[in-house]
Amino acid sequence: MIERRFNLIDEAWIPVTGRGLVSLKQIFSDTTLSALGGDPVQKIAILKLLLAIAQSACTPEDTKAWKDLGIQGMCKKVLAYLDTWHDAFWLYGNTPFLQIPAIEKAEKKSYGTVLPMVATGNTTVLTQIHIEKPLSDAEKAQVLVQLMGFALGGKKTDNSVVLTPGYRGKSNEKGKPSTGKPGPSVGFKGFLHSFVMGSSLAQTVWLNLFTGEELTQIKFYPAGIGVAPWERMPQGEDDEVARQLKGSYMGRLVPLCRFVLLKEDGLHYSEGIAHPDYTNFVVDPSVAVDFSSKKPRVIWVDTEKKPWRQLTALLSFMGDTSNKNTFECLQLKTVIQRLTKTNLESFAIWSGGMQASSNAGEQYFSGNDDFVESEVQLSASIFKNESIFYATLQEEMDYMERMASILWASVKGYYADSMADGTNFASQATSLFWQLCERDFQKLVTACYADSSGEKAREMRRIFEGNVYRGYDLYCPNQTARQLEAWISNRPRLWKNRETNTKEVVANHA
Of 213, 237, 381, 499, which sits with the fewest C-beta atoms within 10 Å of its C-beta? Predict the structure, then answer.
């Protein structure tokens, strides 16, 4: 018998802000733990695991049952559940957590192979961050959970090993092993995920629980909530258990998109369950999607556009619901609409993910790819006039977009007068503008719900207009006579154009 060691219920492996590493038992025993630590992908993957555990332990029937359950009730039931399933959470042993021992036939890879930020093979090492280092058991547990949904596609998976007889999902048209598909939680370029955040980690899990009634209304998962994979692991890529996971909510929380077996010096690694993606009208509830057109659209992670700039798209259910061409994030919509029936005073919306590049079936981190995340605090007072709050926020975000367009056109015009291509400078100035605006965005959101007239929000326009001038002056010098002439003729005239249509304003400064 293989030695059983490092149980995820008892051992510290989950990064928590201000506390270091904690165990699963601590998560549901200590309600003072604030929030998950680590990079955005680690946060999403671990939160989804915590939700899978909580849903398995105590899925409430409806909103009333959810309220009656409460945070303490949920924690009590989860702790009892973890005690019952304690033997399923060993990281090593004959039945290791979320691992397939039979996949040992696949080629063993180094751990750096599956980590986006680590340089392996002929990849250039730029900083110490890119150097592969030995991993602790806690770090291996984090990697394992992350790989279940966020594995990058490519040739690193050994798809020559097929566990389900006759299964052709890991072969190309010529019958040879195919490249691995991207995980269902990352997709082609990197999905943006969003969740409601509470004042503690336990409250966050409780807030994001789905009720049985809500799950029946989500058409993505015909098998309903399903069974947690550690309770019943599949034996192959397309057996009965694997098919059940494909059609269930539990299968989206812990997708098992890679079959893995951890070893001391590496891991055996092959493609696992191939889940349907958004083009097949199936997504994680935390992903915002627009299914109104023939080709579904999703919100991707964009390192040049921080998640806070997508807030109006994520909250579009608060606006004009007659507009069918809008994104919908079921995680936010379901939870926030449920919060109207509670006495919760405040909450936050967290959004994050990673941007990845793809080429010839290989998915990787390029120089422009990175992790992104944003968190915006909201008050329950928005529920009193949520349509007014949303309309005010939308108006101010549109105004900021107009300011960014003016700045871009002004910088471009400045360099055009100097017979130079100012595209790069215009982009850099606009990027600086958004960085400066980010510092005051929370104040803007607060102003939008603190004053239903919208006056306080409009008063903040002076701050954002100042950011336009800062960006212009930094990237458009006025030291020489020729520079000064171009600087004067192209400098944004915002006081003349505050109510002007974006296209007209841009044309005036082009």
Answer: 499
